[in-house]
Amino acid sequence: xxxxxxxxxxxxxxxxxxxxxxxxxxxxxxxxxxxxxxxxxxxxxxxxxxxxxxxxxxxxxxxxxxxxxxxxxxxxxxxxxxxxxxxxxxxxxxxxxxxxxxxxxxxxxxxxxxxxxxxxxxxxxxxxxxxxxxxxxxxxxxxxxxxxxxxxxxxxxxxxxxxxxxxxxxxxxxxxxxxxxxxxxxxxxxxxxxxxxxxxxxxxxxxxxxxxxxxxxxxxxxxxxxxxxxxxxxxxxxxxxxxxxxxxxxxxxxxxxxxxxxxxxxxxxxxxxxxxxxxxxxxxxxxxxxxxxxxxxxxxxxxxxxxxxxxxxxxxxxxxxxxxxxxxxxxxxxxxxxxxxxxxxxxxxxxxxxxxxxxxxxxxxxxxxxxxxxxxxxxxxxxxxxxxxxxxxxxxxxxxxxxxxxxxxxxxxxxxxxxxxxxxxxxxxxxxxxxxxxxxxxxxxxxxxxxxxxxxxxxxx
Length: 461
Known about the structure:
Blueprint lengths: L12 H10 L5 E7 L5 E7 H10 L1 E4 L25 E6 L5 E2 L7 E8 L11 H10 L7 E14 L28 H6 L1 H13 L4 E6 L5 E6 L5 H21 L2 E4 L13 E8 L16 H13 L4 H4 L21 E3 L6 E3 L9 E3 L8 H18 L23 H9 L2 H7 L1 H20 L3 H7 L3
Parallel strand pairs: 1-6, 12-13
Antiparallel strand pairs: 1-2, 3-4, 4-6, 5-6, 7-9, 7-10, 7-11, 8-9, 11-14, 13-14
């Protein structure tokens, strides 16, 4: 089968047979994908039936990628009820077949992706959106190093989905997590067993997890991924790490969440992405003796600044995401950049010349990793090709200057994304239409529910 996206590598029957020979007791294979909300969805295949997946793919509806966070199909851009909800052919992603070590039984797991043009374009799959953007760099003869950092919260296990989240109780001390001990070592020890299992399971699944740290809020942690030069794998690893964290939390009687802002009086959770570019001699083109980096780095920043608000719906994709953007919370409130400065959107971390890179600090932790990387790469590509100069870099507190042009709510972000020529060019008009309609319908459904505060304020009128 010829691939529409030349960056996408599919799993083979030899890979499946090798896995089965090494793991003869595996009963099922979970064929999974990450939807636009970052939620893992899929099918569980008996091992005797899983061979078909690697030979000819499996049928799965297109609209799986267009569900809202509740799992409801809102018929985005007429995909779902209006078109009879047709199936597409999904294939396994090479190198992602592995064991599921947290499960009580012997199960395997493999990522799947659409490679099918029988009814619609395969661009509906966010992994293919990223592959399409990645192809733009072929003419520039550039390669990458990318690393994700994911912040998340642990909560006590709730009795139902309507219960408010509460900080977790340590299985070691039997005390509730409290205080804002960023980088606190005691906090790491109090949840050591959980973090150690995450580390162990990541090794089994070939997810390059590295540093873990406690963050600014009770029960909040960050886990970093080592850099890779495989862009698609970087997004795969980020998505799969979320599954490892959430499943491991359940095992330890917690819940894990990547929601941007679960507590109004605490800091939020972000998805930080580090990226550097290399030419065909393996020289880092961002490298410079200047702390602010090379002219190529500055062109990249210029492109990111130009495209940030058009892409904001990707970085902040739900109602809660916008609560995170508050001054003096180490979260950007404008499109500023600067060296060694955590108050800006695009930070240039302190490093040696060969490791010069951009840290993109805009996205909320719940964002779809494939779309976030698509937005970052498209901005960088636009800046390099058009040689866009950035604003003056900042070494002061950039949070003193909130940008009135920055979207303050998801409705404004939908409007910017939907009408963006930039986004239609890089992601296709088809994808922009689908994603915009999905998010608009999600917000309409969100506002249709009566909230607790409506009863609290108005019931006695």
